[in-house]
Amino acid sequence: PGRLPRSKEVVMVADLIDSVRPGEEVEITGVYTNNFDASLNTKNGFPVFATVIEANHVARLTDKSAAESLTQEDIDAINAIAKRPDAFEVLRDSIAPSIHGHADIKTGLLLSMLSGVPKDVKGKHR
Asked: What distances in angstroms separate CA 46 from CA 33, 43, 57, 62, 72, one per listed residue?
């Protein structure tokens, strides 16, 4: 209430199609990219790029969190991975499995997703 509606074109494919309805408040995770439109160039006389979001994940803002929707089977699978001595490597290798190699990049992504412990520098940095 009291807000102007905002919109942005979002391209959704596969299982994301029809996962939400127009007018719902959603959180979109994806790639913000441009979409070259030759008709806009002809009309305006100079290059115009329309921007779109290529969605990877869509969540309704009113949905319960993922932790609240875990089943006992999910929890058991998480605990089984946590008990493995190679748990970190399993998680790292599960990131973009179709891209082989790049272990350092995948390690950085995994660590950024899992957060970590803040470094206390005792006032050395501002």
From this structure: 19, 8, 34, 42, 57
Cα–Cα dist 2/123, whole Å: 44
Token code pair at residue 99? 């891209």
pTM strictly above 0.70: no
CA distance 37 to 76: 49
62: tokens are 């009113």
- Specify the 3-state DSSP secondary structure of 107: helix
pLDDT tens, per residue, the chain with 126 residues: 455 556 778 888 888 887 877 767 788 888 888 877 677 666 666 666 778 888 888 888 775 566 677 889 989 999 999 999 999 999 998 888 888 888 888 888 888 777 666 667 776 655
For the record, the structure tokens of 6 come out as 């905002």
Q: In angstroms, rounded to a whole number, what is the distance separating the alpha carbons of residues 66 and 126? A: 35
